[in-house]
Amino acid sequence: MVMASSQALALWVVITLTHLLSLGGGFVSCAKPCFWPSSATHDDAGCLSWRVMVEANNARGWRTVPAPCVGYVKTYMTRGQYGRDLDSVMEQVSAYVDQIAAAADGLDAWIFDIDDTCLSNLLYYQAKRFGAYDPMAFKKWASQGGCPGIPPVLGLFEALQDKGFKVFLLSGRDEETLGSCTSQNLESEGFSGYERLMMRTPEYRGQSSSLFKSAMRKQLVDEGYRIRGNVGDQWSDLQGDNVGDRVFKIPNPMYFVP
Amino acid sequence: MVMASSQALALWVVITLTHLLSLGGGFVSCAKPCFWPSSATHDDAGCLSWRVMVEANNARGWRTVPAPCVGYVKTYMTRGQYGRDLDSVMEQVSAYVDQIAAAADGLDAWIFDIDDTCLSNLLYYQAKRFGAYDPMAFKKWASQGGCPGIPPVLGLFEALQDKGFKVFLLSGRDEETLGSCTSQNLESEGFSGYERLMMRTPEYRGQSSSLFKSAMRKQLVDEGYRIRGNVGDQWSDLQGDNVGDRVFKIPNPMYFVP
Questions:
Q1: List of residues 6+ apart from A240 with CB closer than 8 A
Q2: Domain boundary among A50, A77, A104
Q3: In what order do the strands lie in the sheet with A196-200?
Q4: Do B50 and A80 touch (CB under 8 A)?
Q5: Which of B5, B18, B21 sits opposite A188 (nearest CB)?
Q6: Taking 90 as the threshold, does the pLDDT of residue B241 lie above it?
Q7: Which residue positions does the secretion signal occupy (chains A, B) (predicted)?
Q8: Is residue A94 domain-shared with residue A210, that is, in the same domain?
Q9: Residue B10 counted as domain residue
């Protein structure tokens, strides 16, 4: 037992010392949640922790990118790692898709979220410096129908349809005000041939994305569809009821949707 | 629409070009899943993608750390980032714990996994160079009862008990062969005062961790407990039935348990 304790001590001295040494400038003193170091040199390590927590669904309910991480997120999104992470996730999806087949009854379904899954809002969020959600400004951006498609996701979208899966697009965007520009935007970016575009109807206004999307998925299951896969950039796309046989989390450190 | 397409092109040219340029040596040609670059310089970026996929539960069913990432995982675990990530997760748990209270009926429960949640197997996996799971060797290691405790998790474990929560330790370790050394190991590392140690009994041998742990959690819920939080290093600790009001994923790029 003494050995165990001294082992723990030795192990933790190594882990903690290297941690502390690598911090250099030390952590800023701040109220919880506080998880980034003060020194610019070491922001990246703290922001990496934060980004991984976002992807692992440990960090929830955040309203903006932490101020010390704005530059980190911009670099992440535009200098290669986001593209690399996205490609890596697509490799995992492909490996899974290779193992499954669509039955002849046409009821094997896949669900894709739209914002930052099929269509990118990077230009918008970058222009807003990854600040707080601004419903009016976002609506204006979305209504222009100019969101760029995300090519690796388009590739998957097409491959699934080629294999006989029915693809459903499920978005929390308001159908009444953004329905037609969204379908035009999808079309212009190559997302066509899908089975149904499901957007938020008036009865679901104000409801969390997670509840709204669970209700929509239940509709599909009640219609007899088997949800074989589900792709989204938010955990609220991927949790709740009838999430599907397998879910894939597309990276997104820009914003959080409950 | 033309604008949208050219925007997409411009955006993707930036993302993809920086991605390709940053690859330098290019990707190795290999069968799927293949998600790391060949050149040593750029392994870190590919291994980071892989590690984030593990934490986000996008990469599943892997049997060993990808060969090009063994050095990366060792560095991650021992040079600061693991400790930093762990502290960040503990900050998130603390922020959540601050918002909840244990009722006077004594039925508010938390669940902790043991291996690489409460007790660290880093020394074992490092000695095995993060190779494939070796049941006999692991049993030998575990039976020595010398796994170091993980101090930030011990801190949480104690804080929760101080606040009146009942803490349950839920482990896939075999009760018959590892029960007594595990409870001694926990005790020697300071994990005491918990409500119950729940380990795998003969009837659950061979069952996946996810199914076994779901069954154990159902027992607790049937006894009237409310699972307020659940902490584990594997997604199989945190998914299935009755996972709890909130789950926290402790980082672990060393191994995968289905």
A1: A210, A211, A213, A214, A217
A2: A77
A3: A196-200, A166-174, A108-112, A226-232, A247-249
A4: no
A5: B5
A6: yes
A7: 1-26
A8: yes
A9: no
- Burial of B167 from C-beta contacts in 10 A (0-12 / 13-18 / 19+): buried
| B contacts of A59 (beta carbons < 8 Å) | 92
In whole angstroms, give the CA distance from residue B152 to residue B90. Answer: 7
Residue B152: its H or E element: helix B151-162
Share of chain A above pLDDT 70, in %: 84
A137 lies in the same domain as A215: yes
Question: B170 and B89, same structural domain?
Answer: yes
Residue A128 domain flag: yes
CB contact under 8 A, B120 and A11: yes
B167 secondary structure, DSSP code = E
Whether residues B52 and A52 touch (CB distance < 8 A) is answered with yes
Integer Rg of chain B from CA: 21
Domain membership flag for residue B25: yes
Q: What percentage of chain B has pLDDT greater than the value 90?
A: 83
Instruction: Enumerate residues 6+ apart whose C-beta is below 8 A from A52.
Output: B51, B52, B55, B85, B251
User: Are B11 and A120 a contacting pair at CB < 8 A?
Assistant: yes
Q: Are residues A110 and A147 in the same domain?
A: yes
Does residue B210 share a domain with residue B131?
yes
Number of domains in chain A: 2
The tokens for A203 are 């009865």
Closest by Cα among B97, B48, B203 to A45: B48
Say yes or no: A189 contacts chain B, CB-CB below 8 A. yes
Cα B231 to the center of its chain, rounded Å: 8
Is the model more confident about A124 or about A20?
A: A124
A80 touching B (Cβ < 8 Å): yes
**For the domain that residue B117 is a member of, what is the CATH number?**
3.40.50.1000
Any CB–CB contact under 8 A between B22 and chain A? Answer: yes
Same domain, A67 and A102: no
Residue at B149 is within a domain: yes
The DSSP symbol for A129 reads T
Report the C-alpha gap between B59 and B78 in whole angstroms: 22
Domain that residue A209 falls in: 82-249
Interface test with B, best of A76, A92, A186, A248 (most B CBs within 10 A): A92
CB contact under 8 A, B4 and A58: no
Mean pLDDT, to the nearest integer, of B132-161?
96
Confirm if B257 and B236 have CB atoms less than 8 A apart.
Answer: yes
Q: Which of residues 43-62 of A touch B (CB under 8 A)?
A: 45-46, 48-53, 55-60
Tell me, yes or no, whether A38 and A144 share the same domain: no
Res A225 pLDDT > 90 = yes
Q: Are residues B130 and B207 in the same domain?
A: yes
pLDDT of residue A22 exceeding 50: no
